[in-house]
Design brief:
alpha/beta; eight-stranded mixed β-sheet; 15 helices; 20% strand; globular
């Protein structure tokens, strides 16, 4: 059965076509700058990349180009071979604790939840509408970024704000990157041979979040009502004193929307160092750039702080700390710096093992802690797309 995975952003669309249940990747691609004159896309087939540049006015045109790619590279002989389409959707609110077949009610719910996901939902909806038009009658599935975290107890998801903010407006912690945290949790259950795993999962990339898994379920996570909370990230501030917003508004004359945009797109590593990519920050720091050195110290400190907090939440009974996503999988120096701050918990890194594991090396996963470390620390690549594909396959088959 061939299942298509679609991850639509505000001006982008990623896709994969996978043969299930073998999990065989047939074709993948990434459409960028949709709506801009210099829009382009890259398609990958059998390890080879093909790039094409063409103005794509909207997601509908991107979806049409996607279908053409599938046929051109013979990923399918006929569109009838596609039996399901899985869509990444940012926010499922409290209603959705798992993936679901898309119908009119689901679409209306996604629209109503746009107030909680204003940066992502327009693109998510555009991707759904575009694929409905391109593949009429093919069952589609919404895979929510928030769903996996809905097992959090109230003590962990409530904010200490007026209760009516929660009852009237839904103000609470929802958490994100749930598809990745779910994938890693399932993989670790397989590796450890048990369901009641206790994990600290560090999804560290341009966007970053940490979750604590208690007895196989999400118990807490760093992101909040939006992906802006928690860790310092590539361009996001993470947790800050909320009074900063009013103060800067008065001082600068900017409105809340402008300041929120600054916190989402001009802060984090970028705000402190001028670079949003951790590799560029590390390169600048190695040359003695003081702001880059400061940015890395702040970044690594915050990650270590949350790992320590979650270690305590699990009473030290941690089966594994898992690093995943772009920096987590490839950041040899970042992992060393973060774990080096946790020595008082008895967590020790093996520098030799750590240096051998990265996406660009022969070993892409494995244990990087010493034999006498109080917690086993691993690197394990995530695969959000295959998680979306699996959920879609299980719902449509």
């Amino acid at each position: 059965m061939k299942i298509l995975c679609v991850n639509a952003g505000s001006s982008s669309l990623k896709f994969q076509l996978v043969e299930m249940p073998e999990e065989k990747l047939l074709i993948s691609g990434y459409f960028e700058k949709i709506g801009l004159k210099d829009s382009f896309w890259t398609t990958k087939v059998n390890g080879k990349k093909y790039k094409e540049t063409k103005f794509l006015k909207n997601h509908t045109e991107a979806a049409e180009a996607l279908i053409e790619e599938l046929l051109k590279y013979k990923a399918v002989e006929s569109l009838d071979e596609i039996k399901g389409v899985g869509h990444r959707v940012l926010h499922g609110g409290e209603k959705y604790s798992d993936s679901v077949l898309i119908n009119d009610e689901v679409i209306e719910d996604i629209k109503s939840l746009t107030k909680l996901g204003p940066l992502h939902h327009p693109g998510n909806l555009a991707g759904i509408e575009a694929m409905k038009k391109a593949l009429p009658g093919v069952p589609m599935v919404a895979v929510y970024d928030t769903a996996f975290h809905q097992t959090m107890p109230k003590v962990n998801y409530m904010y200490p704000v007026p209760m009516e903010w929660y009852t009237k407006y839904g103000v609470r912690k929802y958490g994100f990157h749930g598809t990745s945290h779910k994938y890693i949790t399932l993989k670790m259950k397989e590796k450890l041979g048990k369901d009641d795993v206790n994990l600290i999962i560090c999804h560290i990339g341009s966007g970053a979040s940490i979750s604590v898994i208690k007895e196989g379920k999400c118990y807490d996570t760093t992101m909040g009502i939006s992906p802006l909370d928690g860790l310092m990230m590539g361009t996001r501030s993470g947790a800050i004193d909320p009074s900063i917003i009013e103060y800067v508004a008065k001082e600068s004359g900017e409105d809340i929307e402008q300041i929120t945009n600054d916190l989402n797109k001009k802060s984090g590593l970028l705000g402190i160092s001028g670079f949003s990519d951790c590799r560029d920050v590390e390169e600048a720091a190695a040359k003695g750039d003081e702001n880059a050195i400061l940015a890395l110290d702040m970044y690594n400190d915050r990650i270590a702080k949350y790992i320590a907090e979650y270690y305590i939440k699990l009473d030290g009974k941690v089966d594994s700390i898992v690093f995943t996503a772009g920096v987590g999988e490839n950041g040899i120096e970042a992992r060393k710096a973060i774990l080096g701050r946790l020595g008082s918990l008895g967590i020790k890194i093996d520098d030799e093992k750590n240096a051998k594991i990265a996406g660009f090396k022969d070993e892409v996963e494995g244990i990087i802690s010493t034999d006498d470390s109080t917690v086993v620390v691993r690197v394990l690549p995530t695969n959000e797309e295959i998680m979306i594909i699996k959920d879609t396959y299980n719902l449509v088959k």
